[in-house]
Amino acid sequence: MPRHLLTAKQIVAAAECDLADGDGLIVRVTGPNAAAVLRFTSPVTGGRREMGLGSIRRDSLTAVGESLAAARNAAEDARRLLQQKRDPIGERDRERSHATTELKGENSASRGSLVTLRRYTRDYHRRHVEPVRAFKHGQQWINSIEQHVPATLLDSALNRISAVELLDALVPILRKVPETGSRIYQRLAAVFDAAVIDGLRRENPATPIRRELRKRAGRRERTHFASMPYQDVPAFIKRLGKAAGNAARCLEFTILTAARTSEALTAEWREFDRERRTWTIPPAKMKCREQHVVYLTDRALEILVGQAGQNDTFVFPSTAGRAVPMSNMALPMMLRRLAVKAATVHGFRSTFSTWANELGIAKPDAIEAALAHREENAVRRAYNRSQFLAERRSLMIAWDDFLAGRSVRKADETAVKDAAVLQFPAQQIRKGRSSRRGQGPGQSGSNGSAQSADAS
């Protein structure tokens, strides 16, 4: 069968799709990310299978060419196993199992010199990262290390890596890609901690270099996601409401709920309780690794109703014909189509925070809780969960009203009277607000703080 059909330029230019490289090898493009996948029929079970062969970097033609060549070599290895009537996925699983057995069976004095950093990192990823993280985030975890850490360090014996060697390897990464470098440092620190616990090392080489790493890499200038002034958001939401498609609805839902992009893109139907008007995001999807409950307003529920029937799992599925979420570039592209250049998707969380704090819509702690910002103090964190449910519901109702150009009330039911800031037409202020807020979900009315049962 023909092979090596793809060029680096084709992969860089591709939109979300599967690109065939020949003889079962495909490059699966999802937004800015891509991965090599080998499709084959198992000689053992007779069933069709897909084997991941690693990520394909798309940041440059050179990076594409290098990662594509590596994927083709891996595909050749798998095809040789198939010719021998062996299932390559089964063989890989057996190798991993054997490696784990070796790690457990060898004495601690000799294991550290036999095990490389690469091998132990992969084993750590399989044991500790894959079980608790979503597939996409788990892949990003291991890929960040294998794509940026020098191969000379990764292939060094685990117990012979010194603090100075680790420092010299990480400084260039931090200078080039500060955010990624910081994450790699944290991940390797966790790997070395586990190695100490497993008896493979006496100390963690990442611990003594923390300050020196920052000094050599240079002070990082903290940047913020560009945000839209909150006075401009109602008009933008009106334009967004007229746009069709899953990306438009997902972006609107993201703004309404003040959620992070990944949380909205991967939202699943099982996470929603329409009767209680809540969206419960599991810990694996949260940045702080703690369950987060979002109160859903009427417009958020309308969006959910409109999305029903497209996919059994995801609320905002990809339109490429596969049961997967949209790519993480879908929402930024939606902003571009609406000619928004000075704001980012994540920046709408800052807009929400600025609006709520400047106008005193709710207590600062309640606003932080609505944004799922982690409270470091455990006692205050538990207190916030129990105390701010009603206030957070009122906060999201007020945000929904603000976005729709309606009159706004704070959590204490007092009206926001600064019309010069809000710029609402007087005729849009509705009457009978207090009675409407007390109605249940099955009754008429737009919003209601009594419409949801407590959800902690």
Structure description:
- By secondary structure, the protein is α+β, with helices and mostly antiparallel strands.
- It has 3 domains: 81 residues, 2-Layer Sandwich (Double Stranded RNA Binding Domain); 112 residues, DNA polymerase, domain 1 (Orthogonal Bundle); 208 residues, Intergrase catalytic core (hpI Integrase, Chain A, Orthogonal Bundle).
- The chain has a 4-stranded antiparallel sheet with strand order 1-2-3-4, covered by helices on one side. The protein has a 3-stranded antiparallel sheet with strand order 5-6-7.
- β1 and β2 form a beta hairpin.
- α8 packs antiparallel against α9, α12 runs antiparallel to α14 and α17 crosses α19.
- It starts with 7 loop residues before the first helix and ends in a 19-residue tail after the last helix.
